[in-house]
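Hi support team,

I submitted a single chain yesterday and got back a structure, but I'm not sure I'm reading the token output correctly. Could someone confirm the output below corresponds to the sequence I sent? I've pasted both exactly as they appear in my results page.

Thanks,
R.
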Amino acid sequence: MKIAVIGADGQLGTDLCNALTSSAHQVFPLTINDIDITDIDKVTNVLTHLKPHMVVNTAAFHDVPKCESHPETAFSVNAVGARNVATICNETDAVLMHISTDYVFDGVKKAPYIESDRPVPLNVYANTKLSGEHFVEAIAEKFYIPRVSGIYGKTPCIGKGGKNFVELMLWLSQNKPEVRVVDDEFLTPTSTVEVSRQLVKIINEQPEFGLYHCTAEGSCSWYDFAKEIFDITKPNIKFNKALPGEFKIEVKRPTYSVLENKHLNDLGINVFRHWKEGLREYLST
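Hi R., thanks for writing in. Yes, this is the structure output for that exact sequence:
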């Protein structure tokens, strides 16, 4: 299958391109230098020339504080960009796979969210990503919307310009005498290798179109996540829970954004392992 991956040099895009190539698909990796999804003419030119069977859009403006201070840019990339890609996928008869986020929920449920739960976004980033979902659902004739949570990969996150959480913890453990992490925010850490395996499974199986939660199994707090990292790597540091309010919160975020892969499980195509297994694999490589 001919598959175009938008955001191919990003954290998820890099591993997805590798996984698709290993699965014998013909991959067209597209970076910001190749395609600007905010420009409908450029999207049209690139995709009509390539004529892929599927387009995977991993591109996003996901620096949460910057989204808050630059809402127009966030909407242009996360919402209008999704609209543009969906529009041209229809014209070229391509399937669209558009990556979304656990942040579309407010966390009030305090139990794993399933695909039918009503999103209540708390910030600009989440609002614009949900708008992108709505554009895809309203426009695309053939689409998958996988929502991911707490992803981390070997390739640096372009949009955030820094280390993922695992690499940050490793750096702190080598450069600071003590590390303190919050214990009141819950998620499911998921490596981009794990996400890529699941996306390839969806692409190969071609199940029914729609919304899919795609995260590792289980859940934890950020403190639990860091503790597991240190239990594996065994650094010589002090490690403690952060005090309530110790770290200033710049933007309102969900304190609970755990997703349940209900749609995948219902169809029998869930290949995710527990998040601790994915972490051990990541650290071993």
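A quick pointer for reading it: Residues 25 and 107 are 37 Å apart (CA to CA). Let us know if anything else looks off.

Best,
Support desk
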